[in-house]
Amino acid sequence: MATYHLIDDDDRILVGLSGGKDSLLLLELLARRAHVQHPRFKVEAMHVRMANIHYETDTSYLEQFCSNLDVQLHVRTTSFEIGNPTNKRDARRQKTPCFLCSWNRRKVMFNLAQELGCNKIALGHHQDDLVHTALMNLTFQAHFTTMPVRLKMRRMPLTIIRPLCLIQESDIKTYAQLQGYQKQQKLCPYEKKSNRTDIKDIYERLEALNPEVRYNIWGALEADNKLIDES
C-alpha cells in the first residue's frame, strides 16, 4: 500500500471476489485493514457468475465469508458468446474464451463500481501472476509489460489496484489452508488450456535455474516504470 500508494482516505473500494484463494485473501486483508484509522476507506465485494461457463462457486459460502468481515456482497450474472469461425483467417482473429470471460466480468464490475460510487477496484493478482504476465507479453506481444499495480482508467473515474502484488502464490496457498478457505465446487474448464499455463511451466524451469529470477524480473519492471500506469 505504501510503496505503490494504492489507497487514500475516503476511498470506496470494490473487491472482485471470484471465490478462489487469492480473492478471498484480498478481501480479508482489506476488510481488516479498513478498521485501522488511517487511511479511512470502505470495502464492498462483487461476485460475477458466468451463465454459460461451468464454473461454480458456493455463493452461500461467499455470503457468510463477507458477513463475517462485515462486507456487503453484490452478486451479478452475465454471459458471452463463443463464435464458430468458418475459415483460418477468422480463427486467428477469434478471441479466446478466457479473454471474453474476463472482458465481460470486468464490464459488469466497472458498471457496478460506478453505480455504487466506488472509485477503486481491487483485484487479487499476486506477484506470480504479474511475473508470468510479463513473460507472456515478452513472448507473444514483443513488449516487456505486465498488469500494473495501479492503473488509472482513461475513460471512467476508476483506478484498478492490485494489493497482493508483492505476495507469492505459495504463501497464499499456505494461508488459505491454515484459514480453511473453501475451494470452488468446479474449476473453469479452460483453466488448463491456455498460454498462461505453458508460461507457468517455463517460469518454474527458470526458477530452478535461478531462485532469484522473480526478483530480477520484478526489479526490471520497476526500473522501466512498468508497475504504475496513470497516463
Structure notes:
It is a single chain. 44% of the residues lie in helices and 15% in strands. It has helices spanning 21-33, 59-68, 88-93, 97-116, 127-141, 169-179, 195-209, 213-223; strands at residues 11-16, 41-50, 72-78, 120-122, 150-152, 159-161, 228-229. Helix 1 links the parallel strand 1 (11-16) and strand 2. It is α/β, with parallel strands linked by helices and 231 residues long. The longest helix is centred in the middle third of the chain and has 20 residues, at 97-116. It is built from 8 helices and 7 strands, in the order βαβαβααβαββαααβ. Helix 5 (127-141) crosses helix 7 (195-209) and helix 5 packs across helix 8 (213-223). It has a 7-stranded mixed β-sheet, sandwiched between helices.
Key features of this structure:
seven-stranded mixed β-sheet; 231 residues; 15% strand; alpha/beta
The best one-word shape is globular
How would a crystallographer describe the biggest sheet?
Answer: 7 strands, mixed
Mean pLDDT comes to 89
Q: Residue ranges: pLDDT <50 for 5 or more in a row?
A: 88-92
Blueprint of the fold:
Layout: E1 11-16, H1 21-33, E2 41-50, H2 59-68, E3 72-78, H3 88-93, H4 97-116, E4 120-122, H5 127-141, E5 150-152, E6 159-161, H6 169-179, H7 195-209, H8 213-223, E7 228-229
Parallel strand pairs: 1-2, 1-4, 2-3, 4-6, 5-7
Antiparallel strand pairs: 5-6
Quick structural gist:
By secondary structure, the protein is an alpha/beta fold. It has helices spanning 21-33, 59-68, 88-93, 97-116, 127-141, 169-179, 195-209, 213-223; strands spanning 11-16, 41-50, 72-78, 120-122, 150-152, 159-161, 228-229.
